[in-house]
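WARN no homologs supplied; continuing
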Amino acid sequence: MNIALIIAGGSGTRMHQNIPKQFLTVDERPVIVYTLEAFQQHVEIDVIAVVCIKGWEQVLLAYANQFNITKLKHVIPGGENGQESIRNGVYELEKYYGREDIVLIHDAIRPMVSAEIISDCIVKTKKHGCAIATIPCAEAMLQTENGEVSVGTYPRDNLKRTQTPQGFPVGKICDLHRKALENGITNSVASCTLMIEMGEQVYFSAGSEKNIKLTTIEDIDIFKAFLRQKRSDWLKD
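OK structure emitted
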């Protein structure tokens, strides 16, 4: 079984909006609906679960009903940070699914995730035991100690930019979170960084420059441009 775990527990303060960014409306749909639809429409995804910011659970359920997200089976409370939100989610899934079932952990604010990215993450997770969506680093990379001046360079060919989904067997990711708590690790940036902090090997799956994370107002503008291009392609077909 393949489960999509959508992380929608953040408040999105960098957007400077009155509502969480995953619930912002873009072209008459909330951002989170675009994300849910990507997994709803994927033939290999069996179940969708959402870790939801407190107070927005009923809004999420109403949107799922309105936009026919029939695979949504679990709504789970968010945590104080990303690691806790993911931990809440995978611990809940552990109650219902087997250790070898696959969970794809995905940011609610990455609404442009493609079917190809989802498929490759599933394939690589089954092959390697984990898979992190990544893209090459195309920019020149500079090192700094104070954020104001460079102290050197770093070869970009040795770097990957991580995205989501990030895939794991349910049992493996739950065990990882338990070990992290035992070691006092409580605020790792992402599942992939938690893996590395715990001494685990990380494998890559395909990402995309279009698989953007909506963090700022400028990102919303880029998202709108991608949507216009997508609609234009549909019309041509």
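The chain is about 35% helix and 25% strand.
OK
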